[in-house]
Amino acid sequence: MPGTPPTRFVYLGPEGTFAEQALNSIPAAERGSRTPARSVPEALESVRAGEADAALVPLENSIGGAVGVTLDELAEGEPLVITREVILPVEFVLAARPGTALPHVRSVAAHPQASTQCRGWLRTHLPDAVVVDVLSNGAAAAGAAAGEYDAAICAPIGAGRHRLDVLADKIADHPDAVTRFALVSRPGPPPPPTGDDVTSLAVYIAHDRVGALLSVLMELAVRGVNMSRIESRPTGEALGRYVFFLDCAGHVADVRLGEALQGLRRVCADVRFLGSYPRQRFPGAGDRPIPAPAGLSDADYADAAAWLAHLRAGDLN
Description:
This protein is of the alpha/beta class.
């Protein structure tokens, strides 16, 4: 993590949500202060203003896709960088006040995304219950604890915080669903390369050039840089104007990724560096680092650079 380890953390609130659960997995956060924010923009602005050292915000979900507001905030305003990712299983539970039995549940509080991801379970086990939309998983748990609803769909941490009994666990229709969170800080030296890193970028293509997006992809492909994600978002300038968010395998300190970044700088209208940080390998996901193609490893680049230096010096031996 760049510079001094953070001690003041902010996260997308309220308390008792998956974001707080993800933050608790970061060792430094256990020793520091943790403050919930009302929105992603509020969380990131507190970092820009120096009121917090780092913010944990959702980046994407394996079911719902990218979190657009987070991408927009990273692309605009004063630069921020991702220093760490946290991948958290999305394990929803049905929780209620002690003494509540499942057959007596007539109303269920849930965030719309939570109820959508648990639609099959609700249809099977609570077909007559009314599902009430609330602003967050934490608000659902708080409402059930206050007696406003018979039960809540929430994160396990929310049930524990509000002293609710878990009537059913792992009720999501997609048991392998995960959410990817980003720990975001003010710019500074990135964490050192680990050999299994991610570099995130926001790329603005030149709209007056034919094949501009293909040029971006070629700068990566010809150097053997694997792109694990590409996501487009409108810039707000005009219809058809987009910024592309890329996740690339490698670290800014790697020779081949460094050359690719120089190439992107040459062919793009603008490139915003969003950070190089260790990849979190999720147990059971089955993914492994993809080795560089023959001739495109950092060692190959170093050998080629040394050879060229000899040529320029007149040494042909």
